[in-house]
Design brief:
The chain is an alpha/beta fold. It contains 8 helices and 12 strands. It has a single domain, classed as UDP-N-acetylmuramoyl-L-alanine:D-glutamate ligase (3-Layer(aba) Sandwich). Helix 3 packs parallel to helix 4 and helix 7 packs antiparallel against helix 8.
């Protein structure tokens, strides 16, 4: 059974961060080990979240326990997300290095011997909000985690922040993404009345787009990253995996609006997030 190591926020009352990703990955038979960077009661967008950041000592100790049980050798994907301090980012960088260095010869029955996939979501800001983490955290993510990534999963604003290049439309996102020199998954890319996600690497680029929703609960980027990670673990083709991941997010947002749900109904939408959506249009860009 595939296994994920997630280093991001744990929010008890909101479907965001590691909580949302673990719930989504479970629908694809992926076990998750969550090392939280914060322990909050609710998303800060609702007001004071309650709780506090996790200390570096606690994060390090949890990772040492994971390693002591030989679980780094069984980790198939590492996902990083929100960090409250630059010191936490450095702990995550060390964890990525440890996962990659862990021996994978003669894996136990049912475990994979493939190299782990590292997905970095540089959670640092968004359009209309700007940078919402301290500058030193954003700098640490750019300097320590992005270079270690096999895939950077960011929104358009974050890609522009990382590269200095405009991401105003899908083709601009392709050009900006290639400046990073590694595969990039770019969300919140707008074109006319659509919003979509661009995948780009040095060989090809794809857009999965759909009509904009009137509103979207927090956590759509976290859900997208988890669903695309599942497609990579399954070995899906890029266009199918992208369309399915974007469709899963779109269907979940639609359900939230129909049900007037304040949070993403990830568990309730378990069957739908495993399928493509007729609402999503897939287009090759390069």
């Amino acid at each position: 059974m595939p296994m994920a190591l997630i280093l991001s926020s744990h929010v008890a009352g909101s479907q965001v961060g590691a909580s949302a990703q673990a719930a989504a990955l479970a629908q694809f038979g992926v076990d998750s080990m969550v090392v939280p960077t914060v322990l909050y009661g609710r998303h800060p967008g609702w007001g004071p979240p309650g709780g506090a950041p996790t200390s570096v000592e606690v994060m390090t100790g949890m990772l040492e326990g994971v390693e002591a049980n030989g679980l780094l050798s069984l980790t198939d994907v590492v996902i990083t997300g929100y960090f409250a301090s630059a010191a936490q980012v450095r702990v995550a960088a060390q964890a990525i290095d440890a996962v990659r260095a862990a021996p994978r010869e003669d894996p136990p029955k049912g475990a994979s011997s493939r190299a782990p996939i590292v997905i970095v979501d540089p959670t640092m800001g968004d359009a209309g909000k700007g940078l919402y983490v301290p500058a030193e955290v954003a700098e640490a993510i750019a300097g320590e985690l992005v270079p270690r990534a096999d895939l950077v999963a960011c929104n358009a604003w974050e890609l522009q922040h990382l590269t200095g290049a405009d991401c105003d439309d899908p083709l601009a996102a392709v050009r900006a993404g290639r400046l990073l020199g590694k595969p990039v998954l770019v969300s919140s890319v707008r074109r006319e009345d659509e919003i979509g996600v661009v995948y780009v690497d040095r060989d090809e680029a794809w857009l999965a787009a759909h009509a904009r929703a009137e509103r979207a609960p927090n956590g759509t980027g976290d859900l997208l990253t988890a669903l695309f990670a599942a497609s990579l673990l399954e070995g899906q083709t890029l266009p199918y995996g992208l369309a399915r991941a974007v469709g899963g997010v779109a269907e979940t947002v639609t359900a939230a609006n129909l049900w007037d749900a304040p949070e993403l109904p990830i568990v309730a939408m378990a069957a739908r997030i495993r399928q493509t959506s007729p609402a999503v249009r897939i287009e090759r860009l390069a």
